[in-house]
Amino acid sequence: MKIFLDGVLQWKKTLGIVFFINVATLLFIYLNWSKIPPLVPLYYGNPTGVEQLGPAKGVFIPPSFVLVALITTILINKAYKDNFLETLLVLSLCVLTVLSTVTVFKILFLVGNF
């Protein structure tokens, strides 16, 4: 796959955008911390009710996980010069970013006072 080699997508710019989106999500959570209740629905796999609730600090987990995955992706891309691996990691990081951002904003707008 030569998606990133042909100039269609440049993986360094893509990683920069992923970094910006996740830092902006963390910043949004931090700036609106007073509007978030102490318990938020984090555990969707559990039965409906109290079992789904977790501490509000858990909202920081998804974007933080993506930032850790971003650092791991950068290190792997520098260690291995495989174009397919680079493409796979960067595209999966984009999917993780979208899912993480949607999840966080869904939780915040569900329980927050915005």
Task: Give an overview of the whole structure.
The protein has 114 residues and is mainly alpha-helical. Helices cover 61% and strands 5% of the residues. A two-stranded antiparallel sheet has the order 1-2. Helix 1 runs antiparallel to helix 2 and helix 2 runs antiparallel to helix 3. The longest helix is centred in the C-terminal third of the chain and has 29 residues. The model has no long low-confidence stretch (mean pLDDT 89).
**Helix-strand string:** HEEHH
Q: Sketch the major β-sheet.
A: 2 strands, antiparallel
Query: What is the number of independent domains?
Result: 1
The strand line-up of the biggest sheet is: 1-2
N-end to C-end Cα span: 44 Å
- The total of helices stands at 3
Q: Give me the count of strands.
A: 2
Structural class: mainly alpha
Helix content: 55-70%
Mean pLDDT: 89
